[in-house]
């Protein structure tokens, strides 16, 4: 009987002791008196247990150094690049599926502010510098204006425009009439009389130019069609179209003297810079107000969505951003972790989680983790009881 009784007592007492760790889940009262050992050990000390678990984890396991090592493993370059690439693709898909055009409205506001306010203010500040646009204007002058020369077709079209639109026979006739006033005729006649010599002096003083110029003006006034016809014939006979075309083809700044070119470049630079300083901000402001930026933003976004360059460059952009973040983390990761620990409040999360876990769930969880170990303790109690009972039997037999 002693071995059997010892085994039963050892087995069931250990089993009872393990169950008393968790049960009863709530306090039991007889009248106003609470029964001892109710509730169980763990439910009764669940608050203190949660605090001890949090202190143990934060003090020994999740130290700042360990969290920093975990953060380094999580934030390696490959993982960061994958995350950035995923975010970029997600943003691009969001832009594509944006039916309310929110992105276009945001971009239009940025463009409107850029051209309507930011650039004019920046231009006012930069325009105060003495070397403002000097290098740019000189480069444009040297690479564009200095080497500019009309082609044969351009010179022919320009000469045709001059003789057909800008200076047709009727315009030339009217210019002759406006030029040959009585005062101008008198000045030409007197100058020809005074400054001519030899045979021309005889012609000038005997006949003069007054009568000829007056008759020319009268002819242009009275005989408009005839005068226009004569001027057209004169233009054709003198080959003015070909002469102007040849002159335009040979027109180039490179044919001018070096000093003249330098002075012309300086004049161009000063003129452009003065105009930009005085009117540049107004021009940009007017441009910003006159452009439909929502339409421009929509066009830009549509172009970006269908651009193969954008899609192919996402991976490269993610690599560069990941490299930048990696350098930043390498430098300031310790500070980031130190600032993140109070924000995350991991200890408080652990306390609240353990506190919110019911006694039933806590027992199930612990039993699931150490079920075999707890059962081994129960079995060990039975074995120890059996051994003690055997010892008692041996002692009784010896006595």
Question: Which key phrases capture this entry?
Answer:
mainly alpha; 399 residues; two-stranded antiparallel sheet; rod-shaped; 19 helices
- Total count of helical runs of at least 4 residues: 19
> What would you call the shape?
rod-shaped
Tell me how many strands there are: 2
Give the N-to-C terminal Cα separation.
Answer: 17 Å
Q: Numbering strands along the chain, what is their spatial order in the largest sheet? A: 1-2
Main sheet attributes: strand count, strand direction, barrel closure: 2 strands, antiparallel
Question: Strand-residue fraction?
Answer: under 5%
Q: Helical content, roughly?
A: over 70%
Uncertain stretches of 5 or more adjacent residues: none
Q: Give the H and E element order.
A: HEEHHHHHHHHHHHHHHHHHH
Label the structural class.
mainly alpha
Overall mean pLDDT: 79
Rg over alpha carbons:
51 Å
What report would you give on this structure?
This protein has 399 residues and is mostly helical. The chain contains 19 helices and two strands. It has a two-stranded antiparallel sheet. Strand 1 and strand 2 (33-34) form a beta hairpin. Helix 5 packs across helix 17 (308-344) and helix 9 packs across helix 13 (224-237). The longest helix has 40 residues, at 359-398. The radius of gyration is 51 Å and the shape is rod-shaped.
């Amino acid at each position: 009987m002693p071995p059997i009784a010892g085994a039963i007592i050892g087995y069931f007492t250990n089993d009872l002791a393990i169950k008393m760790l968790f049960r009863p889940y709530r306090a039991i009262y007889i009248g106003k008196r609470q029964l001892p050992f109710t509730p169980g050990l763990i439910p009764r000390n669940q608050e203190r247990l949660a605090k001890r678990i949090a202190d143990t984890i934060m003090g020994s396991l999740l130290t700042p150094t360990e969290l920093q090592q975990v953060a380094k493993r999580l934030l390696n370059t490959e993982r960061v690049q994958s995350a950035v690439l995923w975010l970029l693709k997600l943003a691009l898909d969001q832009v594509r599926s944006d039916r309310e055009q929110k992105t276009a409205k945001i971009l239009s506001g940025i463009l409107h502010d850029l051209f309507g306010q930011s650039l004019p203010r920046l231009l006012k500040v930069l325009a105060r510098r003495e070397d403002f646009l000097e290098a740019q204007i000189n480069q444009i002058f040297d690479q564009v204006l200095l080497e500019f020369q009309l082609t044969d077709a351009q010179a022919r079209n320009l000469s045709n425009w001059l003789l057909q639109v800008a200076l047709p026979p009727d315009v030339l006739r009217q210019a002759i009439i406006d030029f040959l006033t009585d005062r101008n005729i008198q000045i030409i006649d007197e100058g020809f009389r005074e400054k001519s010599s030899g045979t021309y002096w005889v012609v000038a003083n005997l006949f003069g130019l007054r009568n000829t110029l007056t008759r020319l003006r009268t002819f242009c006034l009275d005989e408009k069609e005839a005068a226009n016809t004569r001027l057209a014939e004169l233009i054709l006979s003198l080959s003015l179209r070909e002469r102007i075309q040849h002159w335009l083809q040979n027109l180039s700044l490179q044919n001018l003297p070096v000093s003249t070119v330098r002075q012309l470049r300086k004049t161009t630079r000063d003129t452009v810079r003065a105009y930009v300083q005085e009117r540049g901000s107004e021009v940009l402001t007017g441009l910003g107000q006159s452009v439909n930026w929502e339409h421009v933003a929509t066009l830009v976004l549509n172009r970006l969505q269908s651009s193969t360059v954008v899609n192919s460059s996402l991976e490269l952009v993610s690599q560069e951003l990941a490299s930048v973040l990696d350098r930043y983390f390498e430098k300031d990761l310790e500070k980031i972790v130190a600032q993140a620990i109070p924000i995350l409040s991991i200890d408080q999360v652990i306390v609240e989680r353990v506190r919110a876990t019911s006694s039933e769930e806590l027992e199930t969880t612990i039993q699931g983790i150490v079920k075999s170990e707890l059962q081994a303790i129960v079995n060990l109690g039975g074995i120890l009881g059996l051994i003690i009972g055997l010892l008692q039997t041996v002692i009784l037999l010896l006595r």
